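Holo prediction — zinc ion.
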Amino acid sequence: MGRSYWFECARCGYRAKVSGREDRGRTFFVQTVFCRDCRELYDAVTRLKVADDPVRFGNFAAWRWATPDLRRTFSAPPAFQAVLSRLPQRGVKRFRWLPFKLQCPVSAIHQVRSWNDPDKCPRCSVFLEKSALPYRLWD
Ligand SMILES: [Zn+2]
Ligand SMILES: [Zn+2]
């Protein structure tokens, strides 16, 4: 099960609800990233469990042979919220893990790096304070 925490900046008041590291649930992995362009922290989805089924979206064999255009579409990671609200995949027997590159959820061309607690405020470079209790348990 993954955990999100409040991270808060004592100087500028910036707040973010993120894992603050690499974290994983049953069906996906995240890594907290700092986007230099947005000056925000996000939980980027880095691995997603998908049905290994030729008909469904996310089929790995199909993805491997897809055209470069299609592959680019598939290789864009879904947003954290979108993955959280995914319906449970019932009746699926075989799964694959789809890997994604670290990417800003706003734009693929933004520059991101992984952000691991303790690390600095994306706005003013003071170290962020982590809440003692998780804000949310997910997946
Ligand atoms: Zn700050
Ligand atoms: Zn960004």
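READOUT: The chain has one domain: 2-138.
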